[in-house]
């Protein structure tokens, strides 16, 4: 998978937008392409060094990744509890990396989607 194919994969999810917001903090981050759902980041890549993806994950899943694979690293943003860096050319199969991106999307989408309570609004004009 190349950078454009990965970009298309991420944009195939409903409601996903992309931005390159980190260059304003430091020129070394100007090539970071970030993917968002509901206005919140779920993964990002470096388009100049397409060797990894940083993904949002659960602490339990991050422990599992670190236990089972050697081609993981610390995320760029250093939030070790909720993010993990997965290298493309290591011992992690690409289908598991794309699964991790899908899971990251679902984590953020679920977190920021309003919950339906199932309550009915009492309408005084109803008979």
Short précis:
The N and C termini lie far apart (60 Å).
By DSSP (H or I, 4+ residues per run), the number of helices equals 3
**Helix residue percentage:** 25-40%
Number of separate domains: 1
- Strand segment tally: 6
The mean pLDDT is 91
CATH topology: Aspartate Aminotransferase, domain 1
CATH class: Alpha Beta
Q: Per DSSP, what share of the residues sits in E-state strands of 2 or more residues?
A: 15-25%
**Shape, please?**
globular
Low-pLDDT segments: none
SSE run: HEEEEHEEH
The side-by-side strand order for the widest beta sheet comes to 1-2-3-4-6-5
Given the helix and strand composition, which structural class is it? alpha+beta
- Tell me what the CATH architecture is: Alpha-Beta Complex
* Main sheet record: 6 strands, antiparallel
Query: What does the radius of gyration come to?
Result: 18 Å
Q: N- to C-terminal separation?
A: 60 Å
Structure description:
The structure is a single chain. The protein is an alpha+beta fold and 127 residues long. The chain has a single domain (3-111), classed as Aspartate Aminotransferase, domain 1, CATH 3.90.1150.30. Strand 3 (40-46) and strand 4 form a beta hairpin. The relative contact order is 0.17. Strands 1-2-3-4-6-5 form a six-stranded antiparallel β-sheet. It has helices spanning 3-11, 59-68, 94-111; strands spanning 16-19, 32-37, 40-46, 52-56, 72-73, 83-87. The chain is built from three helices and six strands, in the order αββββαββα.
